[in-house]
Task: structure prediction
Amino acid sequence: MPSPRPSMIPGWRDLTTMGPYRRDHWVALRVALAIGVPLVLLWATGSMPLAIFAVFGAFTSVYGRGLSVFGRLRMQSIAAGSLLASVGVGAVIALSPGRALLVLPAAAVWAFLMSLLGDRVRWAPPGPMFQIFALAAIAALAVGGEVLLVGIGIGVAVVTAAWSLLLGLAFGAVGAVVDRARARTGAAATSQPSSAAAAGTAAAAAGADPARAGAAGAGADEARSGLAPVTGSIRSVRPARSSALGRATMFAVGTLIAGAIPLLIGIGHPYWAMVSAIAGLSAATGFHRVLRATHRLVGTVLGLGVAAVLLAFEPSGLVVVLLVIALQGGVELFIVRNYTIGLLFLTPLVLVMGRLAGDVSAGQLLLERGVETAIGVAVAIGIAVLLEWRPRWQSPASSKV
Result:
């Protein structure tokens, strides 16, 4: 007999609860520098059309949150390779005369492969979201066959990824020194070190960055449980009941459906729908996939209001660069504590950068972002519900997604 089906509807508290603060300002500063310094240099040299390549290289810095110095270096190096490969595949598609027909199946296959890679190396944030964003956004560029421009862009992405890796090492080294100093101070203050001092000593020995301190215990508990916390927090954990092939297939199907709908109805940024679908499906369980997708929709709607205000001032040049740096810092401060609040920064960040291209009006960008996010969210919720509500008498092997 099938077992009772669990509730899939998030409550108000699920959407509004804040996850714990774990010195996230260090991560925010590191990621803001990773993206900010290259953008300032591109602006200063009059090379802002290459900014999108720098952004995807800088995505390297979002990986490895809370790991030791060399643990993060390993994860970020793998993530950088996957991001640069995604940019390369997208560039090949952008230069192809048949790119409109290639991008959707290529993105679906790439989502499958990147999901398998992510599961293999256990990267966090989980899922192939950044890789699909990079591939599809670069593939959508109107490069007009300019191979040299694309080659320079890939070079910018490589340099930015390397810069992100160096920042990770630098912040980790500083964090290790700070943690050792705090551990010595705590040991001197009491003959019996507190649990916090012991945690600081362990973090220092592991070479953790400042964001690591105070997070190890709770993060380990979440990882062991295999379930995401039932709150607004989306700190990444590994699904307990899942198979790598099942998840890879789920991401591929979600990418294919979410990308096909905007193409069929003729709106401009299909990869926004793909990314929204993947973002929802990256959570650990059926309920949390619905919760993440709901966060995505609510946060985007509210973020569109923030974006409309910012775009009304028609920012350009260095102002856009400074806005991107500030908004990226805000994203990293809140995105893992409450996804909705993080999207209040992420949505205007994406749209402010979208205005750099200058090929569509602000109003059209706002409309397309809202519609395509809704499409991706609907696809993610539909897949999550279908997977959760399959007949419970299926064999365990066939239900692990």
